[in-house]
Amino acid sequence: xxxxxxxxxxxxxxxxxxxxxxxxxxxxxxxxxxxxxxxxxxxxxxxxxxxxxxxxxxxxxxxxxxxxxxxxxxxxxxxxxxxxxxxxxxxxxxxxxxxxxxxxxxxxxxxxxxxxxxxxxxxxxxxxxxxxxxxxxxxxxxxxxxxxxxxxxxxxxxxxxxxxxxxxxxxxxxxxxxxxxxxxxxxxxxxxxxxxxxxxxxxxxxxxxxxxxxxxxxxxxxxxxxxxxxxxxxxxxxxxxxxxxxxxxxxxxxxxxxxxxxxxxxxxxxxxxxxxxxxxxxxxxxxxxxxxxxxxxxxxxxxxxxxxxxxxxxxxxxxxxxxxxxxxxxxxxxxxxxxxxxxxxxxxxxxxxxxxxxxxxxxxxxxxxxxxxxxxxxxxxxxxxxxxxxxxxxxxxxxxxxxxxxxxxxxxxxxxxxxxxxxxxxxxxxxxxxxxxxxxxxxxxxxxxxxx
Length: 452
Fold this sequence. Notes:
Blueprint: H1 16-49, H2 57-80, H3 82-106, H4 109-132, H5 142-162, H6 164-173, H7 182-200, H8 205-212, H9 233-253, H10 256-262, H11 267-282, H12 285-294, H13 297-317, H14 323-347, H15 354-405, E1 420-421, E2 424-425
Antiparallel strand pairs: 1-2
Helix pairs in contact: 1-4, 1-5, 1-7, 2-3, 2-4, 2-15, 3-4, 3-7, 4-5, 4-15, 5-11, 5-12, 5-14, 6-7, 9-13, 9-14, 9-15, 10-11, 11-14, 12-13, 12-14, 13-14, 13-15, 14-15
């Protein structure tokens, strides 16, 4: 009588735990810098330009800089791994911070705006870190692993805005103009982020995943796979979801400090409001990750769209004193749509083309957010804060339509390539036989001992 073959036990790759820890540390450190930069950016731009209509350029250039660098950093990740790409992005962000300090000190708005564009690299690092969390992840835990890295940003972005008043005081004591001193803190956090990623992200998760599927680590094999977004309609729809949620968030968030300042709120009150927003963006992301894994990606996306609608309703119908509630709902809606949508992006593309499609997702997300930030200032001037919130509802509608379309038949996960490489057959990474008949995702793989 033959013995039944035991069902393979699904486990994470042994390096996944370390990868998540290092990425989480980088997110926490970078989040402090991003929290300060976003919280005071619009005020600094208004100060150096002398015109509130240009205040939205801070968020616009941050997101635009992240978008511009998204694809180059994704290509660098394909060739050199996540460690090289993420460390490079953090160092570019450090250069951007130094440029902002110089421009703010000299009251030279072109230099300051150029610094915001370079600092956008920190946004690209933030976005690509969440994808790096899925390189070695089991499919059934992909949403949770991604959301864990997103969640760790909570530490930084909640604490960051609270450092604006003391950072400003320190800067004034050092002879720097008002608001400029806060960016000294941003620079320090970017330097620590780069050090943490460069030292700790070993082994590199993407290079390890490439080795597991039989590719030579660090070689680009995406040419054998279709990488046009139109060839992967479900991934394209997921990108629309993520981009529309990001545009809604940037459009409203970027001008909230200006709106509150004009309404007579103190710098401390503005900081509290921005902390509520960033807490909403990140604090409950693990909950949305679990929902994405258990309830479904699209269902979780629709929950996020409902939360975004709630934020808009508060802005339109309730007084400015409830801005923390509105911004918290805005952050929660962004979190749900981004966690579930990013997970859908990762699993809707072939493995070999996945880093490039992820980079294009960040590109579209950044460009859409930049566009929303660019139009937010003029809309605020013409229609007020309530009118701005209603205008951003158009992006919510686009996200809902894309999410529903992703459920249509024929939008399934793209098939994996069947081409072979010099190292062996193409297989679905990062899962496979590790040792003692255990596998990841149930797919056959070379033994763990064969992995570099």
